[in-house]
Design a protein that fits this description.
By secondary structure, this protein is α+β, with helices and mostly antiparallel strands. The protein has one domain: Hypothetical protein apc22750. Chain B (Translation Initiation Factor IF3, 2-Layer Sandwich). About 30% of the residues lie in helices and about 35% in strands. The protein is built from 2 helices and 4 strands. It has a 4-stranded mixed beta sheet with strand order 1-3-4-2. The relative contact order is 0.28. It holds the Pfam family YbjQ_1. Belongs to the UPF0145 family.
């Protein structure tokens, strides 16, 4: 399912997390952590399209955003988040706290890794 802005080919950080709460915070206000399930990560390795690279080089000479690379990074991060959510769900978790991204390049490839702590949380009543 695509987010609203994706239908217009605009980059978006929308990813269906299937009810898994994801946060970069170290805690989750309004929730109590019942069980820490451990570190989870999702990664993807992508290569760029050489045709898009040539167009990007031309665009970079005049400045401005290089849209094909922006789209590549959005898509790659969204894919990494989908994978980390799958790892969390596979361990029985319903939340990921302290989520971060790590990016590394080697040659024409980029590795994007989302990582965090999978947990089981419950809403605090009252």
């Amino acid at each position: 399912m695509a987010g609203p802005s994706q239908s217009h080919n605009t980059p978006s950080c929308f990813t269906d997390t299937h009810g898994v709460i994801t946060t970069t915070m170290n805690d989750l206000p309004g929730y109590r952590i019942k069980t820490v399930l451990g570190t989870v990560y999702g990664l993807t390795v992508r290569t760029r399209n050489w045709g898009a690279d040539l167009g990007a080089v031309v665009r970079s000479t005049v400045g401005g955003e290089i849209r094909p690379f922006t789209n590549l990074m959005y898509n790659s991060r969204n894919e990494a988040v989908e994978r980390i959510v799958g790892e969390c769900m596979g361990r029985g978790g319903n939340a990921i706290i302290a989520m971060r991204f790590d990016v590394a390049s080697f040659g024409a490839c980029s590795q994007i890794c989302a990582y965090g702590t999978a947990c089981q949380v419950e809403k605090i009543e009252g």
